[in-house]
Amino acid sequence: EVQLVESGGGLAQPGGSLRLSCAASGFSFSAYGMHWVRQAPGKGPEYVSAISSNGDETYYANSVKGRFTIFRDNSKNTLFLQMGSLRTEDMAVYYCARNLVRGHWYFDLWGRGTLVTVSS
Amino acid sequence: EIVLTQSPDTLSLSPGERATLSCRASQSVTSSYLAWYQQKPGQAPRLLIYGASSRAAGIPDRFTGSGSGTHFTLTISSLEPEDFALYYCQQYGGSPYTFGQGSKLEIE
Known about the structure:
heterodimer; A: globular; B: mainly beta
């Protein structure tokens, strides 16, 4: 089955860190650009970060630049998001997503998400 | 940053009726790089339309996307019970890539 499964969410304190993982299966993970998109409760999705298929190129939204790091391990079909200096405004469900066509950042496959809560 | 404004916020209709959802951009969306997603409670978004008018794999033909420049529309020709959900537009023509705030389609 073609799927993405996120993990690693949970409770973190402001200023703390978390590492999210996204395990891919059922498709050739190394052939696709991958992304993180988050959604705060009751809000629309917000773009977070992207990484090219081979990991050489990355992109970050201004809101997370310098605090989050995206990387991938193609040998393990896994995408990661290292989150640091967490803020209350980072609290959201984090989805990993696949873009089907290189350079066209719409997402045809999404995981079910993992909830990140930032609170003291 | 391109701001996407969706309207209406909530649309109340009955099964069998036609739904029209709007997405307006604060500036022209390059090459009509606009997508539509459907989201149900507790689920991830589901891609419906990309490139403003191309239906994603497995999407029924009652879903139609149209528009260009700054105004885009998602039309559902005859609502099925499973179509009542949240709908989001997303532009991927220029960084930062942005989503609309969503339109809720509810049963009247």
